[in-house]
Hints:
By secondary structure, the chain is an alpha+beta fold.
Amino acid sequence: MIRFIVVLGMKKLSNSQMITLARAILVAMTGNLRFITPSPSLVSYLADIVNMENAMAATAGGPLKTATVKVFRNILELSTISLGGYVETIANLDASTASETILSAAMKVKRVSVKPPNDFRIKVNGAVPGEVKLRTKGLKRATFQFEFSLTPADEASWESLYAGTKASCMASGLISGKRYYFRVTYIDKIGTHPWSVILNIIVP
């Protein structure tokens, strides 16, 4: 599966270049019908830009000015990252136009391959009725999301079992004799990966 990710490259930018990038993003996203409800809002984003510009334009210099600029730059960077995440989410709703969507926000784009979790398996806990253990392959710097359902064809029926850095979780309190369906995904620096194959078991 191909996923398109936003590349901002802010760490290498000077303060002036950071302002230039932020202004370009603001202009590109204003009135852009691809982005109806940007988060943060463009009004809030403009305020972050202006705060950094004012800090840089302050007549008083020295360590205090440097520290103030740094604070407002950090705020602007976080807002830009959030906007980048929003744009990336919108873009990946349609792979055929994803690259164009990201570029329309004055952001750079990178195309990457993403893989579903592998080695996903279920183990019955024979000592405790209504309990099964789910496990997948562990990964560094990843967050896992395990879900279950009784009617897997209905996307709205899936419920969360566990979200965290562990590659396994215990499903407890299940009804013996019922068939349950399970799936897992993981989130890393690339983004959210596809769901695993769906496994099912009649709970003992």
